[in-house]
Amino acid sequence: MFCKFCGNKIDEEVVVCPKCGKQVKELKRESAIKAMNELIEARGAWYYETSFIIFMFLVFFPIGIILLVLKSKK
After folding, report:
1. Per DSSP, what are the bridge partners of residue 33?
2. What pLDDT tens digit does each residue of the chain (74 aa) get?
3. What is the pTM of this model?
C-alpha cells in the first residue's frame, strides 16, 4: 500500500503515514493512540534533537546570566 499524500510505501495496517504524518485511514479511538505512538517512534522526539538543545542553551543561558546579574545588583 502507498500513502495517497506522499507516495511512501506503507504497511496495510498503518493509519498514519510515518513519512508525512497524514492520516491514510479512518481512525478509531483505540487505533488513534496506537497510530500516534507509531508516528512518534518513527520520527523521534523533536526535543531530543541536538540542534534544538543547542538553540535552547544559546537562548536561555544568556537570559539566565543577565537575570542573575540584575538580581544581584539590588
Report:
1. none
2. 898 889 989 888 887 888 888 888 776 667 677 777 777 777 766 667 788 888 989 999 999 999 999 998 86
3. 0.36
